[in-house]
């Protein structure tokens, strides 16, 4: 189903598998324009909705020339806390589950 996690702890770091899948996101925006993702839906064999419990880190970056808002988040999925990275393409208005 949705167990494509590939977490490895090596030299104190956590490595996630790059999957770069488009997702449907519910988020809210502050008056200053900052984004706060709430939950997202990913379509695999069946759809799954994942609520974002915590935003651990947020950054801006350029990926292939596109400005992206990057979020490292954690959620409890099937009783296990998992860390993942989502990105928002500010020019195309699209969300991507980048690493999981």
Structure overview:
This protein is mainly β. The strands form 2 sheets. Strands 5-4-3-9-8-7-6 form a 7-stranded antiparallel β-sheet, with no helix packed on it. A two-stranded antiparallel sheet has the order 1-2. It has no helices and 9 strands.
Q: Work out the helicity level.
A: under 10%
Number of helices: 0
Give the low-confidence spans. Answer: 1-11
In whole angstroms, how far apart are the ends?
Answer: 14 Å
* Whole-angstrom Rg: 13 Å
Output the strand order for the largest sheet.
Answer: 5-4-3-9-8-7-6
**Biggest sheet layout:** 7 strands, antiparallel
Structural class: mainly beta
Helices, strands, pairings?
Layout: E1 8-10, E2 13-15, E3 18-29, E4 35-43, E5 47-51, E6 54-63, E7 66-77, E8 80-89, E9 94-99
Antiparallel strand pairs: 1-2, 3-4, 3-9, 4-5, 6-7, 7-8, 8-9
In short, what is this structure?
This protein is mainly beta and 100 residues long. The chain has strands at 8-10, 13-15, 18-29, 35-43, 47-51, 54-63, 66-77, 80-89, 94-99. The chain contains no helices and nine strands.
